[in-house]
TrEMBL record, chain A:
Source species of the chain: Acrocarpospora phusangensis
Cited InterPro entries: MetI-like, MetI-like_sf, UgpAE/MalFG_permease
GO cellular component: plasma membrane
A matching Pfam family: BPD_transp_1
This protein's name: ABC transporter permease
Record lineage: Bacteria, Bacillati, Actinomycetota, Actinomycetes, Streptosporangiales
Recorded topology in the membrane: Multi-pass membrane protein
From TrEMBL, chain B:
Segments traversing the membrane: 27-49, 90-114, 126-148, 160-182, 203-227, 263-286
Membrane topology designation: Multi-pass membrane protein
Record bears the keyword Cell membrane: yes
GO biological process: transmembrane transport
Compartment(s): Cell membrane
Coiled coil, from the record: none
Family annotation (InterPro entries): MetI-like, MetI-like_sf
Key words of the record: Cell membrane, Membrane, Transmembrane, Transmembrane helix, Transport
Listed name of the protein: ABC transporter permease
Record-stated family: Belongs to the binding-protein-dependent transport system permease family.
GO CC, any one term: plasma membrane
Species this chain originates from: Acrocarpospora phusangensis
Length: 292, 301
């Protein structure tokens, strides 16, 4: 009797969240899958085409070009960002910094800046007109390459994203370090372990879970890159194509091309890839955890 | 009853206040991290310096130092009055989306997180799997189908198109769930049940005060997500009267490349500064709360 009463109570608490969740997560995904099975033509109207849109996506060079770009972004930007975040977290936790509190909050602050504003701001700074690059060229008689050129724009976006999120990841890692019992460090020191040994043998293993979470969120963020390239496109319309990232491509297909059905298929393919990669990383991370 | 939860909260969430025995501080390490500090703060300093310049001053002066005249207040006034004061309208829209969207998201996540952490019910495992899966599906992937659905329902180009999708934060739920599991001891709930306290009453009287740092954390992160939202409004809104700040500023910036558009980079820069000040202030003022909430949330992650 008591058990049934409690089970209903649990649903009463979770119910409102789940109802809105069904409306704004489950329903759009289902609707988008439904749409992706049709195709609208000027002549002949909308017809059921099964998985044709998916077949088209798999053979679409523009989609794969977009995917390759975010995969490269993931392979380069995420490790650099997480490595910097890790160094910063270890530095704060070492207790050997002057002004630790100031450092911690300052590096975190860019997280509070909207991605749209960060892209505008960095876009200005990258610009040769009144940006820092122009100033450096004038001051030192340099001719630095244009950060918004086709070759460098991905790197420039990587810099914006790193700037936005390195402090956030630092805090996640630092929080995980705070839970380590300090008596472990004392014991290690009595055993003659140096600082590097303590980092290697105690701190890094303690960070495994938090690093995994940070990695997964960064994978998701990379695969769904949109705001920064979308805003920088105003400044660099030739360097940033309509299929620069999968999300930009899906957006462009929907709102400039009116190809909602194909765009839905692209979004679903990208969602599935994201989930598979995130899940694989999670499994791998957990298995390593079990081994050590 | 009022003092007891406080004691428990401190015991469980203030961890190891004294991390290390007194250790010599290192000037070398401080200098190294100083590079990162400069990297983080320089763009913000650039924004502040350049918000003091006129449109001509922007073009004719070094980006890292002030131009001849100090035009910050003129720029602020011009930003607030340009185009019939539309910036103020965008600010109020953003506040509306944040209060209803982020406030609602925090409320739903808190109640549901508590329910999932403290009650056993059939289907709970399925709920967990679905919500964790949803964390991997970010808002941007959902925006296009949500737009199509909402346009069928006649909700596009209305504030609801922004508020309703903002009400759900799977990450907020996850954070509240792990936080509630650690911060609300079962024994206290059991004793309240024996006292005959109704479940919802128990939640409000006992659960909420214990969850306060977690709630502040989730609130801050949902506020950031809503305040910073760009993709969803970009898709949902055509009418500039409903724009949030991010979309409005991007529009002002795009004017420069539009034929016959008014070039107002000084207003874009000043507007950007005005957009980020409230969030930075909130993070600075509420540091004590969200840092402990974040710590608790990351423990189980």
């Amino acid at each position: 009797m008591a058990v049934t009463r409690r089970s209903w109570t649990g649903w009463r608490f979770a119910g409102p969240f789940l109802a809105v969740f069904a409306l704004v997560y489950v329903a759009p995904i289902a609707y988008s899958f439904y749409l992706s099975l049709f195709r609208t033509r000027l002549i002949g109207g909308t017809t059921f085409v099964g998985f044709d849109n998916y077949v088209q996506a798999v053979g679409d060079p523009q989609f794969w070009s977009a995917f390759g770009r975010v995969a490269l972004f993931l392979a380069v930007q995420v490790p650099i960002m997480l490595f910097l975040a890790l160094l910063a977290a270890l530095a704060i936790d070492s207790g050997r910094l002057y002004g630790t509190g100031f450092f911690r909050i300052s590096v975190f602050l860019p997280y509070a800046v909207p991605a749209a504003v960060a892209a505008l701001m960095w876009g200005f700074m990258y610009g040769a007109q009144f940006g820092l690059v122009g100033d450096l060229n004038d001051a030192f008689g340099l001719s630095l390459p244009d950060p918004l050129s086709a070759e460098l724009v991905l790197l420039s976006i990587g810099n914006i994203v790193t700037w936005e999120f390195v402090g956030y990841n630092m805090l996640i890692l630092y929080s995980a370090l705070r839970v380590v019992n300090p008596s472990l460090y004392e014991a290690a020191q009595i055993d003659g372990a140096g600082q590097l040994r303590i980092v290697w043998a105690i701190k890094l293993p303690a960070l495994r879970g938090a690093l995994l979470v940070a990695t997964i969120f960064s994978i998701i963020g990379s695969f769904h890159l949109f705001n920064e390239p979308a805003i920088l496109r105003n400044l660099a319309p030739n360097a940033i194509t309509t299929y620069f990232t999968p999300n930009l491509y899906a957006y462009w297909l929907s709102f400039a091309g009116q190809r909602f059905d194909y765009s839905a298929a692209i979004a679903i393919v990208m969602g599935v890839i994201t989930m598979v990669v995130a899940y694989a990383v999670q499994l791998r991370g957990m298995r390593r955890g079990a081994l050590s | 009853m009022t003092s007891k939860p406080l004691v428990i909260r401190h015991a469980r969430h203030v961890r190891h206040a004294r991390r290390h025995p007194v250790r010599r501080r290192s000037a070398t390490l401080t200098a190294l991290t100083g590079i990162m500090l400069v990297y983080s703060l320089l763009p913000l300093a650039w924004l502040l310096v350049n918000a003091t310049k006129t449109q001509e001053g922007l073009l004719g002066s070094n980006g890292l130092w002030f131009a001849g005249e100090f035009a910050l207040f003129d720029n602020v006034a011009a930003t607030l009055t340009y185009d019939g004061g539309i910036f103020t309208r965008w600010l109020l829209n953003t506040v509306l989306y944040v209060v209803l969207g982020a406030g609602g998201a925090t409320l739903l996540a808190t109640v549901a997180g508590y329910g999932l952490a403290k009650f056993d019910f059939p289907g709970k495992k399925a709920v967990f799997a679905v919500v964790i899966g949803a964390v991997a599906v970010p808002g941007t992937a959902l925006a296009v189908p949500t737009f199509l659905m909402f346009s069928r329902m006649g909700l596009t180009d209305t504030p609801w198109a922004i508020i309703v999708p903002s009400l759900v934060s799977p990450f907020g739920l996850y954070l509240m769930w792990t936080y509630a599991a650690g911060a609300v001891p079962d024994e206290i709930l059991e004793s309240a049940r024996v006292d005959g306290s109704r479940e919802f009453h128990t939640f409000v009287r006992i659960g909420l005060p214990l969850l306060a740092p977690g709630i502040v954390t989730v609130l801050l992160f949902t506020v950031v997500a809503t305040w910073n939202n760009y993709f969803l409004p970009l898709i949902m809104l055509k009418d500039p009267d409903w724009y949030p700040l991010t979309l409005g500023l991007a529009g002002w910036n795009a004017q420069a490349v539009t034929a016959g558009g008014d070039v107002i980079f000084n207003l874009v820069i000043t507007g950007s500064l005005l957009t980020i000040i409230p969030l930075i202030a909130a993070f600075l003022l509420l540091q004590r709360y969200w840092q402990s909430g974040l710590a608790a949330g990351s423990v189980k992650g």
